[in-house]
Amino acid sequence: MNYLIDTHCHLTFIDKPTREAVIERAMKANIRKMITVACNLEEVGSCVALADEYEFIYATAGIHPTDLGENLEQDLEKVYEYAKNEKKIVAIGEIGLDYYHDNFSHDLQMAYLLGQLNISNQLKKPAILHCRAGKYAGENSEVFPDMIDAIKKSNLNNGVMHCYSGTLKEAKEFLDMGLMISFTGIITYKRNQELRDVVKMMPADRIMIETDSPFLPPKNHRGEKNEPAFVIEVAETIADVRGISFGDVMKITSENAERFFGI
Ligand SMILES: [Zn+2]
C-alpha cells in the first residue's frame, strides 16, 4: 500500500467549510482513508452523516469517559443500536478511562467502559480505547492497571490503545493481551523519548497511526490546528525511529488499519 490512513480524527469538531478544505488537503497528501471518531451520542449521528457523504470516511459509535450521560442502560442501548445498524460504523469508540480531566467518578467511568467493551465483543467491532493518567508524572497512574483489569474482565476480542501515552512496560502488557497500539504526533515531541522506545519495540503487525486532530499537532505544526494530512509526520517519525523507509511505514500501518477495522 502506497498511501496512509488516519485511523483517528475528529472531523466533526470543525465547521463545514474548514472541514471541506481539510479533507481536500488530506487527499492531496495521500491520506486515502480516515476514521472520524465520536465522543458522545450526538456526535455519532454527525460522524455517520459525514461517512455517508464521503466514501473514504468511516465512523465510530461510543461515549468518551469525559462525556458520560445520565442513564447508563439507555446510553448503552443507543450505542449498540447505532453500531449494529450503521454499516459505516467500524468500531466502538472512543471509550475508556480519563483520570486527567476526571469529570466523573472512576466507578461510573468503569461501568460505561465495561458496557461498551461488551458491545464491541457482541458485534465484533473493535474497541478504540482512551486511557489518560493525571497531569503530573505519576499522578492517577492507576488508570493503566484499571484499563488492563477492564480488558481482562471483559475478555475483549479486539482493541486498540489510541494515542498511546503510557510506559514501555504497560505497552508490553497491552501487546500481551493482543491489542494494537496507535501513535499520534506526541511521538514527535522532544520530551517523549519513552514513546519512541515503544515505537521501536513494537511488532510490525500491531502498529497503527492517527492524528487525533484537531488536537495534538506534531512538532513541525505546533501552534496550528492539527489535521489528517499531518499524519505524515507521525509516519516519518516511525520510519526514523525504526530505521525503515517511509514506504514501509505506509505499507505496514495501512495494512494493519485495513485488517483491524475491516475497511
Ligand atoms: Zn480522539
Brief digest:
This protein is of the alpha/beta class and about 260 residues long. The protein contains nine helices and eight strands.
What does this structure look like?
This protein has 263 residues and is α/β, with parallel strands linked by helices. The chain is built from 9 helices and 8 strands. It has a single domain (4-261), classed as Alpha-Beta Barrel (TIM Barrel). Helices cover 44% and strands 16% of the residues. It has an 8-stranded parallel sheet. Helix 4 packs parallel to helix 5 and helix 8 (231-242) packs across helix 9 (246-261). The two termini are 13 Å apart. The model has no long low-confidence stretch (mean pLDDT 97). It binds zinc ion.
Quickly list its features.
single chain, 263 residues, alpha/beta, TIM Barrel, eight-stranded parallel sheet, 16% strand, globular, binds zinc ion
Strand-helix topology:
Layout: E1 4-9, H1 16-28, E2 31-36, H2 41-53, E3 57-61, H3 72-85, E4 89-98, H4 106-123, E5 127-132, H5 143-154, E6 159-161, H6 168-176, E7 180-183, H7 193-201, E8 207-209, H8 231-242, H9 246-261
Parallel strand pairs: 1-2, 2-3, 3-4, 4-5, 5-6, 6-7, 7-8
Bound molecules: zinc ion.
Classified in CATH, the superfamily is Metal-dependent hydrolases
Quantity of strands, as a count: 8
Strand order of the largest sheet: 1-2-3-4-5-6-7-8
- Sheet-strand content, in percent, reads 15-25%
